[in-house]
């Protein structure tokens, strides 16, 4: 058997087209959705992501600005920038690129962002709303994965879903979104005993560990849908996921590639979250 390769670029393009239409509708009411991305330091990977986000905004008709701060910026100076953006009516979404330099307390920075402008969905208030089943802003990567499942017509209700990796950014919100959609969810972490025994039960397997190729074909249930969140740069410069693609393809029913899978969806959902933050300004 050979897995169907899920085209995250195509799914994200369709979402971005829909965003562009809704941006056009808002424009008639005199509102242009605005995203502010704050980048502290010169991490080259972060620079690439930030450029991609800005380009995607421009293409969909959103306004975006990037605020670049030196890597030795103090936490208080960054908090001042965030507070200023909170008070800026032209800014509907604020994203502080992670990871932050060591002198910064990321939680404190995230908790300073106004929850309604927290388009990453990382603020404790958005995390709490998601946990209690009335989400406001959903984290972009898990939200994008739900859109992939929808686009693949995957039956989530009643399915066995296994999430590997329990981060606040991907694993935990992913588990909550799958649970809300009716899946039976197992959330694995780095201490999980016999990981393969867990992953082999999964109809839906989401892997977000940051460990290149750790999930191999023998750990996958035949016919499963496999979602690879990993983006690992190899020595040869190429990207690889957290799933060993070649062996996984022989067992899975469908699989997301890296690149071209989850990554583009994250950006598309960032646009959706920013658009919806702007739409909420009209409705209240
Ligand atoms: N506050 C915050 N929010 C984030 O959402 C956030 C962050 N910090 N820090 C870094 C990670 C990483 N991230 C990616 C987004 C898109 C791609 C993406 O579009 N990837 C393409 C190509 C990537 C390439 O070629 O380098 C793909 O997978 O096809 C990747 C990674 C968002 N992040």
Q: Which strand-content bin applies to the residues?
A: 15-25%
Bound compounds? 5,10-Methenyltetrahydrofolate
**How many domains is the backbone divided into?**
2
Topology pattern, helix = H, strand = E: EHEHEHEHHHEHEHEEEEHEH
Order of strands in the sheet with most strands: 1-11-8-7-5-6
What's the CATH H-level superfamily name of the largest domain?
Answer: NAD(P)-binding Rossmann-like Domain
Distance between the termini: 52 Å
Model regions low in confidence, pLDDT < 50 over at least 5 residues: none
Number of helices: 10
Arithmetic mean of pLDDT: 97
Q: Determine the fraction of residues in helical runs and give it as a percent range.
A: 40-55%
- In total, the number of strands is 11
The radius of gyration is: 19 Å
- What is the correct CATH architecture of the largest domain? 3-Layer(aba) Sandwich
- Major β-sheet profile: 6 strands, parallel
**Could you please say which CATH topology of the largest domain applies here?**
Rossmann fold
The CATH class label of the largest domain is Alpha Beta
Structural category:
alpha/beta
Catalytic activity: (6R)-5,10-methylene-5,6,7,8-tetrahydrofolate + NADP(+) = (6R)-5,10-methenyltetrahydrofolate + NADPH; (6R)-5,10-methenyltetrahydrofolate + H2O = (6R)-10-formyltetrahydrofolate + H(+)
Subunit structure: Homodimer.
GO biological process, one term: methionine biosynthetic process
Protein name: Bifunctional protein FolD
């Amino acid at each position: 058997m050979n897995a169907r390769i899920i085209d995250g670029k195509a799914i994200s393009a369709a979402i971005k087209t829909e965003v562009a239409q809704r941006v056009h509708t808002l424009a008639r009411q005199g509102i242009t959705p605005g995203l502010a991305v704050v980048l502290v330091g010169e991490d080259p990977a972060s620079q690439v992501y930030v450029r991609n986000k800005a380009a995607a905004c421009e293409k969909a008709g959103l306004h975006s600005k990037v605020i670049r701060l030196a890597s030795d910026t103090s936490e208080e100076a960054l908090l001042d920038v965030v507070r200023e953006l909170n008070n800026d009516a032209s800014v509907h979404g604020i994203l502080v690129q992670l990871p932050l330099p060591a002198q910064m307390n990321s939680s404190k920075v995230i908790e300073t962002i106004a929850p309604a402008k927290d388009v990453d969905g990382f603020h404790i208030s958005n995390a709490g709303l998601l946990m209690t089943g009335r989400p406001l802003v959903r984290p972009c990567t898990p939200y994008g994965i739900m859109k992939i499942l929808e686009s693949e017509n995957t039956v989530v209700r009643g399915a066995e879903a296994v999430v590997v990796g329990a981060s606040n950014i991907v694993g935990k919100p992913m588990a909550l979104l799958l649970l809300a959609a009716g899946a039976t969810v197992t959330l694995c972490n780095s201490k999980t005993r016999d990981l393969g025994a867990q992953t082999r039960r999964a109809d839906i397997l989401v892997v977000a560990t940051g460990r290149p190729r750790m999930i191999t074909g023998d750990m996958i249930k035949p016919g499963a849908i496999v979602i690879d969140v990993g983006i690992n740069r190899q020595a040869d410069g190429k990207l690889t996921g957290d799933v060993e693609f070649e062996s996984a393809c022989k067992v899975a029913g469908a699989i997301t590639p890296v690149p071209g899978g989850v990554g583009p969806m994250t950006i598309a959902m960032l646009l959706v979250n920013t658009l919806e933050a702007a739409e909420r300004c009209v409705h209240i």
